[in-house]
Amino acid sequence: MGQIDHFTTQVAEFFAARLGASLVEAYKLGSLAHGGFSKIYSDIDVGLWLNCNQPPEAMAELLTQAKALDSDYGKKLSVFWGNPECSWGRLPMIDRLDMLDHGVPLLHGVRASFRRPTKEEIHEEQRRSIERSWRSKLPELRQLETLEAQMRKPYIRAILYPARLIYTWDTLQVGSNDVAVDYLHKVQPRGLDLTPIDVALDCRREKCSAEEVFALRANLMSQCEAALGYLAARP
Predict the structure, then answer these.
(1) Which of helix, strand or coil describes residue 224?
(2) What is the pLDDT along the chain (235 residues), one digit of tens a residue?
(3) What SS3 string covers 105-138?
(4) Residues forming a β-bridge with 50
(5) Same domain membership, residue 141 and residue 224
(6) Which of 52, 77, 105 is the last residue of a domain?
(7) pTM for the structure as a whole
């Protein structure tokens, strides 16, 4: 983790040098902040809290330059950025929660302190995310005959998605995969097969391979329907 911490600090200092006083703070987010980081399956999430009237004009170019700071880690870098009102930028609702609850300051020790998303806003964002980031990808994953290297990450994410989805829906918080899977075992959603989810978590922990998860041949559409059924019963 030492090299990754060094890289995230480099990224924070890079944006500080170029954005100046517009940058209030930079944060470690995601599994780097709330736990459960996987060298294979996790992104390197960095959040930028800006305080300016308009989004920086050169932001797209700066994001490209930040990724170029390291040829390997740059491929995993995902930068979330926005203003306190969250009226522009790339700071989706769930990542705002993560920044508020878990964001680790990288520059000045400033904790994020903007308006917390409401239950309705969080659930609406989750509904959009289901279509954008999960259900639309399932047909392709279902058709796989073998699990090629480039499909390991999206497949493991798809298997674990119900855990993170249900945990945040119920608690209005963001947690690690470990916390979310443990929560699933407590609530036992009807029709949701927890075995492939448990094995996928072991895969993230490097206790087994993605191919072993794939060999279980989980019914992805059935898992999706079970998760959505649970949400429908708990508005």
Answers:
(1) helix
(2) 799 999 999 999 999 999 999 999 999 999 999 999 999 999 999 999 999 989 998 999 999 999 999 999 999 999 999 998 888 999 999 999 999 999 999 999 999 999 999 999 999 999 999 999 999 999 999 999 999 999 999 999 999 999 999 999 999 999 999 999 999 999 999 999 999 999 999 999 999 999 999 999 999 999 999 999 999 998 7
(3) ECCCCCCCCCCCCCHHHHHHHHHHHHHHHHHHHH
(4) 23
(5) yes
(6) 105
(7) 0.94
Question: Under a CB-based contact definition with an 8 Å cutoff, are residues 210 and 147 in contact?
Answer: yes
Strand 77-82 with 44-50, pairing: parallel
**CA pair distance 130, 136, nearest whole angstrom:** 8
User: Range of 125's domain?
Assistant: 119-233
Instruction: Report how far residue 164's alpha carbon sits from residue 169's, in angstroms, rounded to the nearest whole number.
Output: 8
Look-up: residue for tokens 């659930």? 123
The residue with tokens 């509904």 is 127
CA–CA gap between residue 131 and residue 137 (Å, rounded): 9
